Every structure is written in C-alpha cells, then in structure tokens.
Amino acid sequence: RKEVEQDPGPFNVPEGATVAFNCTYSNSASQSFFWYRQDCRKEPKLLMSVYSSGNEDGRFTAQLNRASQYISLLIRDSKLSDSATYLCVVNQYYKYIFGTGTRLKVLA
Amino acid sequence: DTAVSQTPKYLVTQMGNDKSIKCEQNLGHDTMYWYKQDSKKFLKIMFSYNNKELIINETVPNRFSPKSPDKAHLNLHINSLELGDSAVYFCASSQTGADEQFFGPGTRLTVL
C-alpha cells in the first residue's frame, strides 16, 4: 500500500463547477499536511496547508480527518487557470511524502 | 527575486560521467531538500538537511553525494551517471522540518 494515495484522475470539469479531491495516508504519526499544485514542466507550488479545523482560501477549502487519515480539497467555481496536477503531501518530520497527484482539466 | 534557485536548468550528459547541480535559497530557511521526479511524475524525497547536517537519506545510492557548505546552499553531486538517473531534480527549502516547502525550478537531467 502506498503511503499517500490519490485518485490520479483526470478530472475533466466545466468552468464554474465544484470539484473535490481526496487523499488518504497510512502513517498515523504524520505531523503536517499540505496541498500543492504542479503545472506541466514546472515546480510544485504550495496551494495551502491543511488543518484539522479545516481552512479556506478563497475558492479553495481543505479538510483533514486524522481519525480516518483522510485529506480533502474542494475547489469552487473552477477557472481555466485551475487546470493542473494537485499533489497531496504528508509530513513526517523532515520527510515529506507526496501522493502521485490528481490531474484536473477545467474546460471552457 | 528568486527564492530557491537551481543551476543548471538542463543537463545532458553521457553514461559514466560525473555532474553537479547547485541550489541556493534566500529565504533564510534552516532546512533544504533534494527530490527526484521520474518519468511517471512521481516526486520522491532523496535527502533532507538541517543547518548543514544530513537528517534523512532515503536509500539513495551512494553515487549521489549532497553537500551543504552553509545553510543557504545544498549541492548535489552525482558520480558514474546511469540511464535511470534521467529525471527532474528539484531542490526545496523550509523553515523547519514540518513547515511548507518552497521549490526551485528544477534541473532536467538526461543521461544518454
């Protein structure tokens, strides 16, 4: 079993749609959690950190469920510019484990 | 002003050669990392350094030798390059070993 699992997609959605990504992790001792986005042939860029209380940044909402070892990302009102690969990242103190990523394509 | 920079951006070389990739961060972070992203786009951590000290070596072959002359720099030297070393190598930094990371633009290594 992979340490961090994500549905690879692709998710093809129309502009304006709401889309949700999920991620599960296997190590209950994991400390911190993040969502990154990676555009084709570019470096990963931090989208948001994820907290148990849930957090929101504009159209993006992230949630962490430690009991279920599950992380989610919700994107509302999708824009063409949201097309990218979304990476779930789990930290175990100096070791960051990346999921394989979920590809999102927002269609006009 | 680039926060994490890497050189070179592209590296094409023959099998058996030795090459180095340099990384610098101007964020004042204490921790730096090397990652490898293979052709399947999977991003895997190779090394973690904190204040010039090696913290994590993720079972990387000893042909790969990182060096941190100071906490703003983490270079990667690779000996006897193999075809399987072809990948994109990313450098990253963070303030602590649990904070958000910031990535360099990557070095695309092709071994012929």
Describe this structure as you would to a colleague.
The complex is a heterodimer of chains A (108) and B (112). With 108 residues, chain A is mainly β. Helix content of chain A is 0%, strand content 55%. Chain A has strands spanning 4-6, 11-14, 19-25, 32-38, 45-50, 55-57, 60-65, 70-75, 84-91, 96-98, 102-107. In chain A, the strands form 2 sheets. In chain A, strands 2, 4, 5, 9, 10 and 11 form a 6-stranded mixed sheet that branches. A 5-stranded antiparallel sheet of chain A has the order 1-3-8-7-6, with no helix packed on it. In chain A, 35% of the residues are buried. The mean pLDDT of chain A is 95. With 112 residues, chain B is mostly beta strands. Chain B has no helices and 11 strands. Chain B has strands at residues 4-7, 10-13, 19-25, 31-37, 43-50, 53-57, 64-70, 73-78, 87-94, 102-103, 107-111. In chain B, strand 7 and strand 8 form a beta hairpin.
The total strand number of chain B stands at: 11
Order of helices and strands of chain B: EEEEEEEEEEE
Number of helices of chain B: 0
The total strand number of chain A stands at 11
Q: Strand percentage of chain A, roughly? A: over 45%
Short description:
The complex is a heterodimer of chains A (about 110) and B (about 110). Chain A is mostly beta strands and about 110 residues long. Helix content of chain A is about 0%, strand content about 55%.
